[in-house]
């Protein structure tokens, strides 16, 4: 999750678009390097982790495809999350392990997108809306309980259908909220296009 968070936080460090493009490649691999370094210090076998270099590349490509639009990013990463969960559910061995553990990488960029989209256009009610949104984090606890309950009938591997349904809702939300915000005159593509290159 740290790798995805570092990638998503690039814009917080600089307004320079050129520097942001470079950091979108550097930040995730820097975080990955720190992860590998810590594991090397404790003499853990690093070989199983190397495949994440390719998975991180998928993260970077998806991040670039979003072009900074939070709705598009939420949609893209939700679809990738669904794909990773389905691969994890219907494969065996290390392929399943890599697919399921990569969900955290793709999921880590979603919260900032959800928050941005949810509070946009609230005006004077932004602080109240963000307070309600923070309380909704408890949904993670409820969803975990639901998945545990489903696993009693399906087994652990197929209980991830709960996550698939959650990602499907997020994809729908990303699609729906774009139209709602456009009706309010909020278009993230236009906002991004107006950014100075510096």
Overall pLDDT:
87
Tally of DSSP β-strands: 0
Helix content: over 70%
Could you spell the SSE succession in H and E letters?
A: HHHHHHHHHHH
Distance between the termini: 30 Å
Q: What kind of sheet is the major sheet?
A: none
Counting H and I runs of at least 4 residues, what is the number of helices? 11
Rg calc: 18 Å
Structural class: mainly alpha
Notes on the protein architecture:
The mean pLDDT is 87. The protein is globular and about 50 Å long. By secondary structure, the chain is an all-alpha fold. The longest helix has 25 residues, at 17-41. The protein has helices at residues 2-8, 10-13, 17-41, 52-66, 70-90, 93-107, 110-119, 126-135, 139-154, 161-183, 188-193.
Short synopsis of the structure:
The chain is an all-alpha fold and 198 residues long. 77% of the residues lie in helices and 0% in strands.
Observed structural traits:
11 helices, 198 residues, mainly alpha
Indicate the topology.
Elements: H1 2-8, H2 10-13, H3 17-41, H4 52-66, H5 70-90, H6 93-107, H7 110-119, H8 126-135, H9 139-154, H10 161-183, H11 188-193
Helix pairs in contact: 1-3, 1-4, 1-6, 3-4, 4-5, 4-6, 5-6, 5-7, 5-10
